[in-house]
Amino acid sequence: MATPVMEKSDQAPEPGFADSPYITVTFRVRRFNPEVAAEATWEDFQLEIDPKERVLDALHKIKWELDGSLTFRRSCAHGICGSDAMRINGKNRLACKTLIKDLSPEKPITVEPIKGLTVLKDLVVDMEPFFQAYRDVMPFLITKDTNEPTRERLQTAEDRERFDDTTKCILCAACTSSCPVFWNDGQYFGPAAIVNAHRFIFDSRDEAGEQRLEILNDRDGVWRCRTTFNCTDACPRGIEVTKAIAEVKRALITRRF
Ligand code: SF4
Ligand code: FES
Fold first, then answer.
1. Which of 76, 237, 245 gets mutated to test ligand 1 (max ligand atoms within 8 A of its CB)?
2. Which pLDDT score is estimated for 4?
3. What is the pTM of this model?
4. Domains of the chain as residue ranges with CATH
5. Nearest Cα residue to atom 8 of ligand 1
6. C-alpha distances out from residue 35 to 38, 44, 73, 122, 196, Å
7. Mean pLDDT over the full length of the chain
8. Is 161 strand, coil or helix?
9. How far is the C-alpha of 46 from the C-alpha of 108, rounded, in Å?
10. For atom 7 of ligand 1, which residue has the closest CA?
């Protein structure tokens, strides 16, 4: 298939701006449309683009100006909603937080869907197994007190600090879909579910830690983790995912949390 190219004249800087920041970049995008073909293929798009822009900006340009059928998820465009995790140059990242200049743009930049989840179309995967694992760990505060509290549930700054890191999760799935155990066995809860279980297991106000630990003691639970650190490397929020998993493993052995 001929490479769609955005003409330089479309994007050229205003006259008088001799130091154009624009460079030509090839985006090699994994395309899949089950209504057209059974197999995914690569398609190249060339853009004249400022390398200080983000991969999400490039995908928007492709969609709006070259091929409106290109399909991907995004919402906030600012690293908050977690909807645009994708494999960029072979690494899981958020497209909205990845600058083109940081990707060696003199070579084609590859953009693919995250791995381990069924691809629905182009860069969009079926997130349901991921969210089912999240729901399975009961990601909400549980107390045994049947009466509505008359005041807020207090905790010390130290107690709050205990699970601060895992509150930062935006459920982007970059960790889970970078995990080789998850690729090989879609039954594994995966790092993101464990991170979100950790967030409540170590919350002094919560009273269902034992239940969550038993859920993760399952054959598809924390013991599947092989400590490859892929998850920690992939997390766009800088969460120490492997450390959180290790803390859950330790809590399962000691029953102290
Ligand atoms: S732990 Fe990090 S990589 Fe995993 S889902 Fe949460 S934010 Fe995304
Ligand atoms: S679009 Fe929301 S995190 Fe990137």
1. 237
2. 62
3. 0.90
4. 8-125 (3.10.20.30), 128-254 (1.10.1060.10)
5. 172
6. 8, 21, 19, 12, 36
7. 93
8. helix
9. 9
10. 169
Q: What is the DSSP string of 200-251?
A: HHT-TT-S-HHHHHHHHTSTTSGGG-----HHHHH-TT---HHHHHHHHHHH
Given the DSSP bridges, would you call strands 109-112 and 23-31 parallel, antiparallel or unpaired? parallel
The residues lining ligand 1, judged by C-beta closer than 6 Å to any ligand atom, are 82, 169-175, 191-192, 195, 234-235, 237, 239, 241
Q: Which atom of ligand 2 is nearest to the CA of 80?
A: 3
Burial class of 182 by CB neighbour count within 10 A (0 to 12, 13 to 18, 19+): buried
Q: Whose CA is nearest to atom 6 of ligand 1?
A: 169
Residue type, 114: I
4 lines ligand 2 (CB under 6 A): no
Structural contact between residues 111 and 123, judged by C-beta atoms closer than 8 angstroms:
yes
Instruction: Round to the nearest angstrom and report the end-to-end CA distance of the chain.
Output: 57
One-letter amino acid for residue 139 of the chain: P
Q: pLDDT (tens digit, 9 = 90+) per residue, 46-74?
A: 999 999 999 999 999 999 999 999 999 99
Contact indicator for 15, 4 with CB cutoff of 8 Å: no
From the CA of 212, how far away is ligand 1's center (Å)?
19
CA distances (Å), origin 58, targets 47, 105, 108: 8, 12, 13
Place of tokens 């279980």: 197
Q: Is the pLDDT of residue 15 over 50?
A: no
Instruction: Say how many Å lie between the CA of residue 236 and the centre of ligand 1.
Output: 7
